[in-house]
Amino acid sequence: MMRRLLTVRRTSRSLPFLKRRTQEADLILMLEKRDLKRLRARAERLRQAGTYWRDCLRIEHVMGWLYDGDGKCGYCGVELVESGHTLSGTATTDHLLPKGRYPHLDADPLNALPACATCIHLKGQFDPNKFGTPLLNDGDNLNPSVRAELIARTKAHLEDKLTKRRVAFQSDLVAWRDRFHA
C-alpha cells in the first residue's frame, strides 16, 4: 500500500497533526497485516478440511473466497457453495483484474473473487480499471476500497452486457417462433 505524502505549512500546530496521520496510517497497515494473517490461517484450515479447496492452486484464491465470507458470486450474488456450484464445477475464482495485465496481483487475495460460470463467461477479459478513471497504476496493490469500486464497475458492465443480450434474445426468439412455429 502506498502512503500519500501530505503537504502542509510547518507550524507548531501542524506537527501533531502529521504525527497523528502517520500513526493512523501505521495502525491501518498493522490491522491489514493482522487481518490477512487471520484470513490465511482460515484458508489453510479450509484447504485441509475439503477436497475442493485443496485443489485450488493458490492459497490466495481461497483467501479471496473467504474475504467476503458468504460463498456467493461476487458479481451476481448467486449462492455457490451451498447450492452445489462447487460440486458441478460452475463455481470458480475470478481475477478481478486480469492476471495477464496485472501479473503482480495474481497472489493478492483481494484480486481473487468467487464467481459463477455465467459471470465469468460474460466478464471475459474485462478490465474494470480501464472502465472510467483508472484507480490503480502499474505496480500498485489493491486495497479494500479500490476493490469495492472495481467490483461495482464490473457489476455495471455485466448488467449492461446482460441487458443487450436480453434484447437480442427477444428478437431471436420472435424470429425462431416465426420460422418454426408459424
How would you sum up this structure, described in words?
With 182 residues, the protein is mainly alpha-helical. It has one domain. It has six helices and two strands; from the N terminus they run H-H-H-H-E-E-H-H. Strands 1-2 form a two-stranded antiparallel sheet.
Spatial separation of the terminal alpha carbons? 63 Å
Q: What is the H-and-E element order?
A: HHHHEEHH
- Helical run tally: 6
Largest sheet data: 2 strands, antiparallel
Secondary structural class: mainly alpha
**What's the gyration radius in Å?**
21 Å
Question: How confident overall, as mean pLDDT?
Answer: 76
- Counting structural domains, the number is 1
> What is the count of β-strands?
2
Considering the chains and any ligands shown, give keywords for the structure.
6 helices; 182 residues; mainly alpha
Write the layout of secondary structure elements.
Blueprint: H1 14-49, H2 51-54, H3 59-68, H4 85-88, E1 91-95, E2 112-116, H5 117-123, H6 144-180
Helix pairs in contact: 1-3
Question: Care to give the gist of this entry?
Answer:
The chain is mainly alpha-helical.
